[in-house]
DNA sequence: GTCTATATCAAGATAGAC
DNA sequence: GTCTATCTTGATATAGAC
């Protein structure tokens, strides 16, 4: 198969696995079986697991860039834009998944150094995105931290207490931005 | 060594490891080396890893009970009691740790069934504790979810962005309860 | 109650054929 | 680009001696 397509396909599946299991717990074996390949073939495209982890972080950053472009072009009240960001972020996360950035953070102390740096970068980028969308509101950095922490904490709670929790949280976060 | 003391000691170390690495990632080998024992000796006290996981959940529940007793006896404004709960919960979590309940939640889909049940139980118990302390405030269940999600999400953020985030969150959570 | 030794399995990674 | 085969490591768990 064409190399760029295959690489993309592997990154895509790895991202799903990270959202479901976390970075440390997913394996080349899981991945290869789903893609109809062998572990060795994955290693051909991404020599080490950390290379694949880095590629996934890059992809998350690209996704954030695209979301910001889309949101800035929307014809909605600026005060709605942070909420729209959270809504779009959630749309990429299934019921049995958590935020991939949270997953990396949970494994953080045991990541290879270079991957830690990428995780820090995408973490700060996402915080910066929300803070930027809140720029007309007082105390935007602190508010961005509160919104994202609550959203991602709730995604983990969802695993144990069920999906209704997300509506409870979303409602309150919207109130917080009134 | 006395069996009850040894069991307690193992549970205590396991809890620390879960806060640092998560349930799936800590091992009897890590534990045994710290305690000056062998893996086999840990297996004598807790035949399977899931038995140890269950004991850790029990310990967390006991801790919640004790905290609630202590807080109810405190001579402070009822409106301060939820904040005091969060403060006490935080005091058991080091700078390089996350909330152990969050750690179990992150691993949730890959836990043995019986341990899932224990994690659900302690999760709901903690939510119930905060909701109870908020009982004079409107919408207490929803507020409890918001407070705990934000606190625990922030603990994971701390790993990637540093400790200052906790003061930002604490300050905002206090404002939310005014 | 703790030990040594070992069985079993899964993971990351590499060598070399096609 | 993908394969088979293999190495190495680390994990859960058990058997049996002391």
From TrEMBL, chains A, B:
TM region positions: none
Pfam families: TetR_N (PF00440)
Keyword Transcription regulation annotated: yes
HTH tetR-type domain boundaries: 4-64
Keyword tags: DNA-binding, Transcription, Transcription regulation
Record has Transcription as a keyword: yes
DNA bind region: 27-46
Protein name, UniProt field: TetR/AcrR family transcriptional repressor of nem operon
Species name: Peribacillus huizhouensis
């Amino acid at each position: 198969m064409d190399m760029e397509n295959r690489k993309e396909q592997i990154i895509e599946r790895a991202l799903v696995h990270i959202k479901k299991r976390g970075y440390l717990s997913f394996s080349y074996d899981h991945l290869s079986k789903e893609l109809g390949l062998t572990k060795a073939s994955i290693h051909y495209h991404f020599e080490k697991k950390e290379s694949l982890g880095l590629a996934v972080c890059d992809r998350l950053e690209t996704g954030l860039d695209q979301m910001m472009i889309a949101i800035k072009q929307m014809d909605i009240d600026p005060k709605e834009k942070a909420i729209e960001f959270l809504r779009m972020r959630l749309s990429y996360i299934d019921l049995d998944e958590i935020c991939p950035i949270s997953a990396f953070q949970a494994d953080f102390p045991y990541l290879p150094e270079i991957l830690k740096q990428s995780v820090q970068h995408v973490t700060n980028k996402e915080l910066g995105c929300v803070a930027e969308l809140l720029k007309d509101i007082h105390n935007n950095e602190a508010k961005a931290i509160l919104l994202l922490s609550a959203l991602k904490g709730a995604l983990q709670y969802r695993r144990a207490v069920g999906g209704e929790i997300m509506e409870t949280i979303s409602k309150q976060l919207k109130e917080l931005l009134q």
